[in-house]
Amino acid sequence: MFNLNKSEHLVVIRQDELSKTDDCVELLRFAVSSEPVAGIVFDQLSRNPLLPDKTNTVIAVPAEWNAASDRTAINIKFYTAGEQVCFDGLKDIKQSPWFIISNGQFAVKINEEVLNKVLNSLPADVIAVNADYGLLAYREKLRFISDEWIASCRRHYSDSAEPIPIPSDWPHHIFMKKAVAGTALANGVLPDRFTDFVDKCLSKSLKLCAISIAGIAQDLKTKTGLLNLCRRHLDTLSETGALNNGQNMYKQVFGTDAKTSQKARLVGKVLLGKNVQLGQDIVIVGPAVICDNTKIGTAAVINSSIIGPDLSVPANQMLFNQVVQEKQPNWKNLARYNKHSYEQKVFDVLERRFKADNEFKTWPVISYARLMKPIADFIVSLIVLILFAPIVPFIILAIKINSPGPVFFKDKRQGKRGKEFFCLKFRTMIVGADKIQDKLRFVNQIDGPQFKMGDDPRISTVGRFLRNTCIDEIPQFFNVLMGQMSIVGPRPSPESENTMCPSWRYARLSVRPGITGLWQVCRTREPMKDFQEWIYYDTKYVQRLSLKTDLWVCWRTARHMAINFIKQF
Fold first, then answer.
1. Are 196 and 322 part of one and the same domain?
2. Which residue has the higher pLDDT, 263 or 444?
3. Residue 303 — pLDDT band, cuts 50, 70, 90?
4. Which of 18, 235, 370, 485 is 20 to 30 A removed from 519 (C-alpha atoms)?
């Protein structure tokens, strides 16, 4: 019986009928019973999707497997079919309101921020979660109409989630509210089939749903999945300074007693097990893992591979992107050049996506863009708000008398690096104007994602005066004070507009959006050119950002405002 009194996370490695192919012959069983691969697998599987604490995790392994279990930091239990799971006292743990059951076949990496938002918003007792790399940021989605014609194309710049049908097999994670964890299992037994688990939840009137969340799932029953898991683990150690290219460092960190020749070369991230014997003139290129009690023959070359325990690699053997687990493998077949599979290429792309987004333009810390411009924005905004403070009450009174509704209009826009904020303005239109806009789209007078029409019926009388004199944008100086906007910069736009042009988006979101900008003072308003000019002037501003450019834009804006104000009388 499993007692989960002090655990919030149960990882179940199930024993099923494994596929009998060259690439997968009880590969997961090999992984959990071969050191140091077992340490990598258990370390990755024990990571709680919600909490960093691994001590709250129990990993359940079939009793028939000779799994490595001498680990103090990871709680490993061996189970037999139909073994009972005890949830007594689980509700007393306050770190998270959820109890998690994970599928031990997959090492999953998902966007935890998106996961938390989804879990907090769904009114469900049990939630099945699968990782889907198709929902990761910077991927395009196409929608089709009849005859496979493309109806729309949209590029998502942030990780997302979407509802899916209840899966027929065990998902990557199951999140259960702790209050119903015992109820969801039939007599405290975790069934072999997920459909039985679903039937039990429905029979107890529990609310059940399923979602996919942006992420990567490595299938540990495949060679590609196991190799990628080891690569990701070694990359993590390298980032923390635990690895370098010297043999002495490997021995100190991993406690190995490898017997190495003076001519053996270890290049990159290589993990050696205990009692590994390395012959002369060998080359091991990481990421690579050599398991316990393994002998590497003279002049052997091993690249991006896992070599199982108690094996003897022949002299002059060449291995690339292989997992060698059999006691007497066909070394001749393994020597064939093995190109990266499609799954490997997908993993490489997605791993780069997870590390860092370096598409945005950056400036040195000691520069006008990073240092002087924010300070100047704050000071000027404070002065403007103080100067306009005496007339703001009259503006508010005029808006309330002229049109029913709130005084301010706020709309969600994207700021620097896509961070969303609410852009403030004095309300110049009738309430619900944004809903009417779709009906008026056919009379739009400009191209691109914006909307503009002469004599717009949605604009109130006071609102027209505020727009013509640019007084409606005074509240945006509060956005500048909060660091969300700048006085000069690209026009603040919602996500739907920024998806129209990826390269343009990266440029304009490299800086804070502005109350005024180069496009606003330079646009010609010629038919079918407005969107092109918008792209051109936004990118040009980012490329030539300087004090001189900002002062010139401010001068042109002030002159334009003065002329328009005089025209009102």
1. no
2. 263
3. confident
4. 370
